[in-house]
Predict the 3D structure of the following.
Amino acid sequence: MDVYSSGTGLYTTSLAMCVASAAIPNSPMFSYACRMAAAAIGVLYSSPSDIKGCGDGWKGLNPHIEKTKTAIKDAAKSVSDEEWKKMGREEFDAAYKQFCDELDKCKGMNDAVGGCMDGAAKMSFAGALVSTTGSGILFGFAMAAMASKVVPGIGQAASLAIQSAGITYANIFQTGLKNMATKNLKVLGAAAMIAAMAGQFFSQSTQQKLATATTPANGDMPAFEQVMIEGLPVSTKGLPGASGTKTPGG
């Protein structure tokens, strides 16, 4: 199982511990810091597994690109030299080379987007680990502060020291979470923007390439050679001066 799949569970556990810490009777300052920590975790909340899956999806396109290049190359090998004389081998080779160059650019972009998503997934998972660890310590301070009030033998000075330490830690923790949330939002936003721009680029590039390929450069229609297969009826219906269907040689 992918370790990233536990990310959302860690975030949920962190939220629960922060809310519980805030609910335990304690100093108002401590409770406030716990609520602020919970809010920051809510901003951090994301799915490292889904983010990584998105990156793997982009990088997973590259094997299909290679298969496409290989399939076209194998199909070209099956054409005989005699048939190539009618179809233009040089033109095909030039078009195939240009096609492969464009696909290689796509592969590079896929790797770049996938790598960006991998980085975002690592940051998301790191946020989950920090949130869980810090929330556990926070919950420990809350329980210790409550115990210091009800357990006999703990002096007032010790109880106040525990509460003071808890407040100090809670403020440091929630401030750190806020800073991490700000950085993670920037990284995740940038990753999402890169993925969206890459998808738009592919769409526009494909449409442009199709338009270029189907539009003659000089404005003339391409000259096609009529090919007739022996024994196969040829329909001439609709053509100027044609009367219907006939068989070659008939």
Q: What stands out?
A: The beta strands are 234-235, 245-246. The chain has a mean pLDDT of 81.
